[in-house]
Amino acid sequence: MALRIEYFLILALIILLLSVLRINPISQDAVESNSSKELVFTNFSLIELKENQIGNALLASETTKYTNYLDMKEINLTSDKGDMLLATQGIYRDDVVYLKENVELKNHDNYRFLTDSIDYNVDAKYLKGTASFTLDIYKSHIKGDNLEYNMTSQEVKANHIEASIFFEPRQ
After folding, report:
1. Cβ contacts of residue 59 below 8 Å, gap of 6+?
2. Nearest 10 degrees: CA dihedral of 138, 141, 147, 150?
3. What pLDDT, on the 0 to 100 scale, is given for residue 119?
4. Are residues 74 and 60 in contact, defined by beta-carbon separation less than 8 angstroms?
5. CA 78 to chain centroid
6. Domain assignments of the chain as residue spans, ordered by start
7. pLDDT block averages, 10 residues each, the chain of length 171
8. For site-directed labelling of 122, which of 1, 32, 78, 141 has its Cα 20 to 30 A away?
């Protein structure tokens, strides 16, 4: 009496089916995370579009989106008038960019402003910082702290100012 291969295949299929039916899958809870980190972006850009032109542009080499804010690294914030704010780190929350570490403001009027931290209100176009700062305009050098700068009216306020101002004679 010879056994045919079909009987072996049917027997193997029955054993496989019974073993699958005997498995009782246990539902396990998902692993909970204490982090509120939602997304991580590299080469992130956020650009404000206006009717006839591009408004503010925010560029960052790496951005992490949390529930209520964006945490950014290597920031370049350019206003619609060409002012550039550069910083190593920053947080964007509620239309305010909190810039930290190596903050630099460059302007098309050839001035350069340096500080450790400053807050920029995007809607009001207003800079406010409590850290000490230096401002280089042409060959003049100004130091101070508690800077407030309205980028629309170009009005600047500061405390504890030390300045060396250089005037070039007209020729």
Report:
1. 43, 44, 45, 46, 75, 76, 77, 78
2. -20
3. 93
4. yes
5. 13
6. 39-128
7. 77 86 65 70 81 80 89 88 87 90 82 88 87 85 89 86 81 69
8. 141
Q: What are phi and psi of 145, to 5 degrees?
A: -145, 175
* Residue linked to tokens 């980190």: 37
Tokens of 32: 């909970």
3-class secondary structure, 7: helix
pLDDT in tens, 89-121: 999 998 898 999 999 988 767 778 899 999 988
H/E stretch holding 20 reads helix 5-22
Amino acid at 106: K
- CATH for 39-128 is 2.60.450.10
The token pair at 139 is 């060959």
* DSSP calls for 58-81: EEEEEEEE-SS-EEEEEEEEE-TT
